[in-house]
Every structure is written in structure tokens, then in C-alpha cells.
Amino acid sequence: MPTKKLSVVVTRRLPDAVQSRMAELFDVTLRDTDTPMSRDALAAAMQGADVLVPTITDAIDAALLAQAGPRLKLIANYGAGVDHIDTGTARQRGILVSNTPGVLTDDTADMTMALMLSVLRRIPEGMRIAQSDDWTGWAPTAMLGGRIAGRRLGILGMGRIGQAVARRARAFGMQIHYHNRKRLRAEIEEPLGATYWDSLDQMVARMDVISVNCPHTPSTFHLMNARRLKLMKPDAVIVNTSRGEVIDENALTRMLRSGEIAGAGLDVFERGHEINPRLKALSNVILLPHMGSATVEGRLEMGEKVLINIKTFADGHRPPDLVVPGQL
Ligand code: 8YV
Question: Annotated Gene Ontology MF terms (predicted)?
Fold first, then answer.
């Protein structure tokens, strides 16, 4: 006898191929606009759903989870980071949470390198000059940037993405340093040629480039606070492709304005897409609209991961990418 299809609510428009596959497999409610669902619409959708597929723009907090219907049993996040989901409350309510790890590692690490290169070699500025009518031709002292090779890179958070950044940066001739909750095992650390710093303060004070690659959790919120940002060398730059909340954005803006920090490349911001206007006005920053994982291939693979997690759950097994260890 065919089993009843799971009712799946997807909160954002996903690539066509992912949506079609979802529609084949499940009784799915899809979105056909690119605007996020309102909180009320989300609450209503969670009433009758077995599975919710949210993204980073949906704050699935305790109050919203309290309104979920009794059928909601899986939140299959379309994304790796789950800091927008109250996973503790979900767990208490018997709701599983899965994510899409691994498939956005290379793309996000590539974007980290792109930001580093763009800031140090002044690429957007050069492009503006080349596109303007003001460029009068090559000059020996024009557009001088900083050499990548030999620079000391301090990676904050040496998970999958941090390690992928380390491999790339090493190929560019950078010296690799890292701080992590736990030191990597020797067999992982050695091939990366990475030096571990137990003290984040000491690492920050000695680096030419800081790359933020840790998730946003209560213990990483404002890890790069005003005091730590002040430890950075005045010629150092910081890049962030992880979560804006890890850096105190107001403090960073002040220090970039005063020249205490030379530059920044940011793909993520403390208040989502509401970027501090003072930060937007600076010339020593490169700001991107959270596009670190935005590749055609990555978005399809994220969709495949979501599908596998839901399908496995529908078949009565443990979804492979549960984020809370020990669930189920
Ligand atoms: C995704 C991300 O695009 O997966 C993540 O954690 O930060 C992004 O790059 C986004 O989260 C999709 O929900």
C-alpha cells in the first residue's frame, strides 16, 4: 500500500530542479517569489506541515516553535549554519533538525580568497578606475596593493571551511595560523602546514589577515569584539564569510574609519542585509551580499542534501545530517 506523502513546506524559492524533485516526492508547498515568508505566514505554514525547509532568513525561534503543529517532526534547513534555528527548543519538542554540510565548503572558501585578494590588491577600486574616463594610463606608483605571498593568515575556526581556506591560502604562499576550540589532530594539521594558537589574542596581534570561519554560537558572538579588534596590527585586514555576529560591526566600522585596521572584506553582517551605513561609506572595505555559497552547483547540491535528509526521514531512518548529536 503506498504510504501517505509527507507534507513539506519550503519557505523560499529554490532552484527549479530542486523544487521539481521535491514536488515528485512529497506533498510540497513551494514559494514562487523571492521575498521571505512573513512570521505569521511561517507560523501558519508550520501548523500543518510534517517537514519545514527554512533558510537563513527564517528565524525559527522558541516562540515560533511553540506555534508549530503536532505533525512537525523535521526541520531540514537549506544551508549549513543553523544559528537562526533554536535547536535546543526543537530538540525538547521532539523536532529533528538537519542541515547541508560539505557541499558549500569549496565555494565559501573560494569567496574567502576572493575577498582577501580583492581587499589586498584593491580590485574593485581598480575596476572603477578602468571603467571611468579618468584613467590616464599605467604609472609605476599607481594602485599599489599588498603582496599575498608571505603574509600571515590567521584562520578563526578551523572546521571544513577553515581547512579549505588554509589549503588555498597555502597554495598562494601564505603562512597559515589558526585558532579553534580544539587543536586539530596532527594528521589533519600537518598537511595544512598550519600553526595552532591556543590564545586568540596572541594570534590576532600577529596576523596580517584574519579570516573568520567559525559558526555563530552563543560563545562566538562578538568573538572579535572591540578589545580584540584593537589587537590587530594597523596594516592588517579582516575577512568574514561566516556570520556577521562574530564581529562587533560597530567597533570594526570605527576602527576602519580611524585607520586602526587597514581593510575588511565582508560577505556577512551583524544585522542581516541591514548594513551599518557608516560601513557602506568606507573605501577600505569590500562588501558582498552574502554570496559565499552562491554557485549554481552549490545550490543544487544543497537541495540534494535536503531531499536526502527528508527522504531518509520519510523512510523511517535517521536523516544523515542531523545537527544535534544524539537526536533520534
Ligand atoms: C547559505 C550559509 O546560502 O549555509 C550557510 O550557512 O551561510 C549560506 O551560504 C544560506 O545559509 C542558505 O540558507
Answer: glyoxylate reductase (NADPH) activity; hydroxypyruvate reductase [NAD(P)H] activity; NAD binding
C-beta of 293 in contact with ligand 1 (< 6 A): yes
pLDDT in tens, 248-258: 999 999 999 99
Round the average pLDDT of the chain to a whole number and report it.
95
- Choose one of 293, 297, 300 to mutate for the ligand 1 pocket test, by most ligand atoms within 8 angstroms of C-beta: 293
Considering the four listed CATH numbers 1.20.1440.80, 3.40.109.10, 3.40.50.720, 3.40.50.1000, the one that applies to the domain covering 105-287 is 3.40.50.720
Residues of the chain with CATH 3.40.50.720: 7-103+296-314, 105-287
Does the pLDDT of residue 263 top 90, yes or no? yes
Which residues are CB-neighbours of 236 under 8 A, at least 6 positions away?
Answer: 207, 208, 209, 210, 261, 262
d(CA 95, CA 328): 10
For domain 7-103+296-314, the CATH architecture is 3-Layer(aba) Sandwich (3.40)
The verdict on ipTM greater than 0.90 is yes
Burial (CB < 10 A; 0-12, 13-18, 19+), residue 308, is middle
In the predicted structure, residue 324 carries a pLDDT above the cut 90: no
Query: Is 269's C-beta closer than 6 angstroms to any atom of ligand 1?
Result: no
Instruction: Determine the distance separating the centroid of ligand 1 and the alpha carbon of 200, expressed in angstroms.
Output: 26
Residue 23: Cβ-neighbour burial (10 angstroms; 0-12, 13-18, 19+): middle
pLDDT number for residue 1:
43
